[in-house]
Amino acid sequence: MVKTILITGATDGIGKHLAKKLASEGHHVILHGRNPQKLELALQEVRTVSLRGRVSSYLADFSKLDDVYRFVEEIKREFQSIDVLFNNAGLYAGKERKASAENVELTFMLSVLVPYILTTKLGPLLEKASDGRVINTSSYMHHFAKVKDLDFGFETNYNPGLAYNNSKLYTIWMTRYLARDFFLRGSNITINSYHPGLISTNLGNYSSDEKTKKSLFGRLMKSFSKNLDEGIETGYYLTLSEEIIGLTGYYFDDKTVKTVSEKGYTLEKAQDLTNYCNDKIKLFKQKYVEFD
């Protein structure tokens, strides 16, 4: 069965490689990117291997909420349904804390807030699919998160490692919360998170900090990285496998449900996380009435 699959951050690494594999099997792949030149190159690459030539591309800078909402409106205008939303875009930020106009730290923005917005706003399109799926990219590094308080904006304490590890934990919290919410509303949408493995990709592309590439994180990415074929295995599995029909709220690694580090997780803390996201969205909409 041919599926329509939206992949964010699809101009590099896992996103592009997964898009090529899915397109080569005849699926309609929707590519997202923020760099127009790289997006055009990715579009041509994916189209070259596409079995049916059904490849679309959309430009949006996810560090800006107005771009996020314009992207949503474009997708809703041009597609009646989507089978899979694959939230792949992310970054490992630089030494200095950088934030959006709403003061959302950018690592959190890409890993948590944007997937939250896309999932909730594109939910009606996913509902129209017989097996609507959302896949959120987390990381094994969530095990090293340090959650002493719920400083989702990393305003009192910031370093790139803390922002990355905690944001990947919050990705899991958000996934579990939305899985519960969909279930209670009787939705057929499933939502899961996964660890793709250490893969040498351009994860720091949203950051202009060259030191990131020379950091311990950057060196680990190069030293222990999987090749891309290995790196997309779990994501591909979550996208298409019939084995996970009905499974929701889980964290996968190597195509297997794995235990997560709770780090004090409670439903109340997950609600605090979504409240933080909703507050930032509300702040944005006060300035941009067109997206209200």
UniProtKB/TrEMBL annotation:
It holds the Pfam family adh_short. It comes from the Bacteria. InterPro entries: NAD(P)-bd_dom_sf, SDR_fam. Keywords: Oxidoreductase. GO terms for molecular function: oxidoreductase activity. The keyword DNA repair does not apply. PANTHER family: PHOSPHATIDYLINOSITOL-GLYCAN BIOSYNTHESIS CLASS F PROTEIN (PTHR43157:SF31), PHOSPHATIDYLINOSITOL-GLYCAN BIOSYNTHESIS CLASS F PROTEIN-RELATED (PTHR43157). Belongs to the short-chain dehydrogenases/reductases (SDR) family. This is Short chain dehydrogenase. The lineage of its organism: Bacteria, Bacillati, Bacillota, Bacilli, Lactobacillales.
